[in-house]
Amino acid sequence: MSRKRKALSFKEKLDTLRKVDEDPKRKRTELAKELGLATSTLSPVVGQRETIMKNVLSFNVNAKQAKTAQHVKLEETLLTWFKEVTAAGVNIDGKVLREKADEFALALHIDEFQASGGWLQRFKTRHALVYKSVCGEVKKADEAVVSDWLEKLPSLIAEYEPRDVFNADEAGLFFNLQPEKSLCLKGEACRGGKKSKERITVLLCCNADISEKLKLTVVRKFQKPQCLKRESHLPCVYRANEKAWMTAALFEEFLSLLDRRMACKNRKILLFLDQCAAHPRQVTLQNVKLVLLPANATTHLQPLDAGIIKNVKHQFKSFLVRRLLAKIDRKDEGDLRISLLDAIHFIAMAWDRVTPTTVANCFGKCGFFGSPEEVPLEPEDPTIEDWEQLNVECTSDDFCTADDNLATCGVRTVEDIVEEATCGAADSSDDGDDIDVGDGEGPPPVAETQHPLDILRRAVAADEVSDDTCRRFYAFEQSLLGDLAKKKRQKDIRDFFIKK
């Protein structure tokens, strides 16, 4: 007798997908029989994996259908606000939520809406919201809290290998910081205004044995900056919003992609996060388990805060100083600033150069898999010789730490959330002072690529560089020219068959 088709909740669908991932080659009829489902129920679940994962992030996991609200935009913006304020440690009850819903309705010009008690209950059910009492954050790290956490940590990670224990965190960066402005900007939080276009927020994530350093996410103010318009392959994920902050929506996107990546590898991982406003308290993931670190103790307990981010920033600043000196040496009278595209490549290079020793020391310093050790800076700090050539009043340390207090997230106003939901981030860098203007020429022809390589080859031959550096340069040259030639052949073939 055939089984009747059964309506599954989102949670049951997630459990079903987990079973499928455990043995992808297993016959669906056998699995359906084990789960007590009809094959006609199982097949759509497997085929709608992407939709199910999205619905889990947006709706109650016990719901069986993704019932949308009458005013979708209103609920989206209200939910964004709710996640940000609760993540910041603010207690929210039904009365406040209804008042805020009316405020969003007014901002969105929805005249017929009224936040009644019935609407509130449906809103809470749709999004599985619960009110929780949140203790105010302690302003200074409590030694007892740190001690208790370090005692509890071994039991949290006991069932995981170092390769499956991750940490993610954000860092703010003035990517066009000029040395002479370091003292003016030191300690600047930059929560908006003109300075927001001079900064980026970078999301970093790696595991304890450094076998995986995930692709960086870079957030800036402009959605389509000129210098990125023709760049189809970036060494990062690029996103934008008005304040150049990490938001709950952007972080949930990151989590969803990470969860799918681990599901494809049939891996279960542990991800440690601090309690910033962008990090979710209620999210359903299949292969990623979130652990929130104690509030205001991340400098003691979070590996990325223990020295990894500092190393990345210092290496970035070293690249910046070298570029500045190169422009001065060739008497470049143009703008000494770099483009966002340059900054993205610099931060990606800095991230790539973080060593396994640094990562291991930082995880060990925070109680993970080893004994605490001091974390040395990588040898790519701006050198004394480089710094003295700049002849500026501030110190190298002032320059490297000027953006340490940059805000990377926060609770946005109703106006900010509504503007992003209705208009998105600014389309492009339309301020005349911005270096991105006119910097979107796209990649050079293959023939033009050879000339700078010839110059570099002569430099390698003329200067006293190591044999290892020579070998790496030759390998890079051959790899680059090979890839460009292959791309050109593919383009020529397409042009041949697509006649005008």
UniProtKB/TrEMBL annotation:
UniProt entry keywords in alphabetical sequence: DNA-binding, Nucleus
Location of the region described as Disordered in the Swiss-Prot/TrEMBL record: 423-450
Major localization class: nucleus
Top-rank taxon: Eukaryota
Domain HTH CENPB-type span(s) in chain numbering: 62-133
Signal peptide limits: none
Amino acid composition bias (Acidic residues), ranges on this chain: 428-439
SMART domains registered for this protein in UniProt: CENPB (SM00674)
GO molecular-function terms, A-Z: DNA binding
Subcellular location: Nucleus
Pfam families listed in its UniProt record: CENP-B_N, DDE_1, HTH_Tnp_Tc5
Coiled coil: none
Gene3D superfamilies: Homeodomain-like
Entry GO terms, CC: nucleus
Protein name: HTH CENPB-type domain-containing protein
Native species: Rhipicephalus microplus (Cattle tick)
